[in-house]
Structure prediction request, 142 residues.
Amino acid sequence: MSRAAALALPPLAVALALLPACAGSAARPAPPPAVVQRPPGGGEARLRLTASAVARLGLRTARVAEGPAGAVSVPYSALLYGRDGRTWVYVSPAPLVFVRRAVTVAAIAGPVARLAAGPPRGALVVSEGGAELHGLEFGVVQ
Prediction:
């Protein structure tokens, strides 16, 4: 065997050894950008998104703030209204997870909605992109 042929064998052996690993990663499907988890027997759906899906949808969150007299407030942009007239927000109880929660609005002052009932102070609510989550939850978008 020539010296050139002997030197070419180690890189070739490494490439051949890595080939099965490459094939395995290409065969592995990517996780879906969003999954809607519905509890058996009903209840609130949990929407689990990938970080890239959150970025693509432009989701933004804000903390529920404490206002005067212990009332809590959220950005007005966090409010979503149903056809039945009920008002709700999407809360993020864990990173990349979103759950719809009913709220009762006491007053709206410019960009802030003061709540009579809703998520506790400090909770994260979706302040931008809630309509996209609603579409995902109810099958309007995929």
Observations:
- The radius of gyration is 24 Å.
- Residues 48 and 97 are 5 Å apart (CA to CA).
